[in-house]
Task: inverse folding
């Protein structure tokens, strides 16, 4: 199978080169979207040093089922209307947390445009659970 891949790349070097270039551009674009991605360990260190605050953007039902201790809750679809609630946290990094990381980048980008320092939890709350870290109800 690996030999077939090498043969394809050699026979279609222009197509393969374009694929690699597009892949790199996609990765760069995604990384720039909403600030840096943090691991569970990095998020914990940031919050424990009082330099960050967790913003959970999941639906109320999901938030009630379990969330990171002391996290703020503003559902994804209500962020624009409730952004003023974050004003008192402007001096801290706002770490956006969602279910799997699918909305965190766009939310972090909106907050960044509004002048906040942002980051996102890589992989969302699923990563937090996967690392066996505590959730409160």
Result:
């Amino acid at each position: 199978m690996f030999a077939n891949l090498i043969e394809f790349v050699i026979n279609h070097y222009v197509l393969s080169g374009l694929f690699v270039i597009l892949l790199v551009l996609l990765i760069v674009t995604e990384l720039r979207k909403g600030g840096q991605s943090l691991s569970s360990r990095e998020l914990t260190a940031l919050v424990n040093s009082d330099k960050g605050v967790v913003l959970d953007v999941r639906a109320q039902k999901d938030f009630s089922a379990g969330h990171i201790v002391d996290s703020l809750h503003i559902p994804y679809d209500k962020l624009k209307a409730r952004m003023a609630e974050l004003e008192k946290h402007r001096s801290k990094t706002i770490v956006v947390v969602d279910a799997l990381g699918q909305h965190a980048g766009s939310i972090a980008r909106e907050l960044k445009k509004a002048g906040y320092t942002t980051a996102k939890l890589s992989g969302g709350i699923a990563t937090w659970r996967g690392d066996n870290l505590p959730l409160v109800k």
Notes: Helices lie at 2-11, 13-32, 40-48, 60-65, 79-82, 104-113, 124-130.
